[in-house]
Design goal:
- By secondary structure, the chain is an alpha/beta fold.
- 44% of the residues lie in helices and 11% in strands.
- A four-stranded parallel β-sheet has the order 1-2-3-4, covered by helices on one side. It has a three-stranded parallel β-sheet with strand order 5-6-7, covered by helices on one side.
- Helix 3 (35-47) packs parallel to helix 4 and helix 5 (90-103) runs parallel beside helix 6 (117-125).
- It is globular.
- The two termini are 18 Å apart.
Amino acid sequence: DAWARLDGQPLWRWLGGAGESPALVTDMTIPILAPARMVELARQWWGLGFRAFKLKVGKSIDADVAVLRAIVEAVPGATFRPDGNAGLTVAEALRYLDAAKALGATLECFEQPCRSVEELAQVEARSEVPVLADESVKTLADVAALEGVGGVNLKIAKSGGIIEALQMG
């Protein structure tokens, strides 16, 4: 950001963006809490204009599905980006995806449902939803080892800085 400012450019353009300023589209993270509180947060964020929710999952697959059902009912039209933080088995991840589909929930991706790249690839191969690596990617070498995974959640701090994150991207 400092270099972009010194060059008199917005960061998005300095990083290679072209054309008009991109529209900011982001999600709001809803942590694992009591189900009623998770629904309350989804309603509050929806009221503030957020249309996508990153749902933390992995404590209990039954509870995760129940919360998803409640939020789908509370804010129809929302999209979801569940994040397993490497806490699910392949079977649990697939069960969550099947339940989401049965509920009519729109999932944009499924972030790091399982621990290993091999498990992520197994879920990806059996899903219509892209599976993203997160915790399993910290270096450029990690990205190169991601065969069969739909994408990567890049984080500047986790990657060692903006240059490294750009290289990984």
